[in-house]
Amino acid sequence: MRSLRVLSIVAACVGVVGSANAVILYSQPSDTAVGGTVIGSYSEALSQGGTSSGVTQADNFTVGSGGWNVSKIRFWGFSDAAGTPGYPDLTNFSAFEVNVLTISNTGVGTVIQGGVVPKASFTITPTGNVGGLGGYEYEFELNVNFNLAAGAYFLNVGAVHTVTGGLGDWWAWSASDTGDDQFAFNSDFTSSGWNSFQGTNMAFEIEGDTVNAVPEPFTMALGLGAAGAYIRRRRRK
């Protein structure tokens, strides 16, 4: 088996809060300069059952007080281009599985959001970086719509391969220099098969809105002004 680690709107009335503009809520980007060599860790779909690289990865993140409305998940990864034949692009992958899991007392818990998503559903953009075995790195962007309460979670990402049985290229989730250097891996693809590991971070970002966000003073003033104008119009009738 190849090595696991590879060179790889304003509110018109008072009381409505929140933001219509999504922001990056959590960020561990693939931060290798464009044109550089990236490293990563092999990761296949959790539900695939170990038909290719034999491992799936997850990395932890924390949702702040109030919770999040998640609208986009972004991650980075590449083909190792070492299969037969070796494809440097994403030809050997038909879909990707993206899951959000809880954290239990013993580590990774259960899947609460996610599933297998066809490759065509992602916005996929080449980064200009290359993995150590020749595969091109890509940024994957997926529009989603779900809420997460405050607390700690894991994000799991893995590829669905068109060729099984250990053949063809394997997909590697790019590493990030940002984070707490802790992640988890699962080599038997069961809920009890997760193991913690130290030493690296997986590259991903989560975008959306914070729940119960307090509007900025200028925004609130606009809201109050709109409400006042409405009241004045009604009194003139």
Strand and helix map with partners:
Blueprint: E1 5-6, E2 23-28, E3 37-38, E4 40-42, E5 56-63, E6 68-79, E7 93-104, E8 107-118, E9 123-131, E10 136-148, E11 151-161, E12 171-176, E13 182-186, E14 194-198, E15 201-202, E16 204-210, H1 217-236
Parallel strand pairs: 3-9
Antiparallel strand pairs: 1-4, 2-16, 4-12, 5-11, 5-13, 6-10, 6-12, 6-16, 7-8, 7-11, 9-10, 12-15, 13-14
Provide a concise account of the structure shown.
With 237 residues, the chain is mainly β. 8% of the residues lie in helices and 49% in strands. Strands 1, 2, 3, 4, 6, 9, 10, 12, 15 and 16 form a ten-stranded mixed β-sheet that branches.
Commentary on this structure:
The chain has 237 residues and is mostly beta strands. A hairpin with a 7-residue loop joins strand 13 and strand 14. Strands 1, 2, 3, 4, 6, 9, 10, 12, 15 and 16 form a ten-stranded mixed β-sheet that branches. Strands 8-7-11-5-13-14 form a six-stranded antiparallel β-sheet, with no helix packed on it. It is globular, with a radius of gyration of 21 Å. It is built from one helix and 16 strands. The protein has one domain.
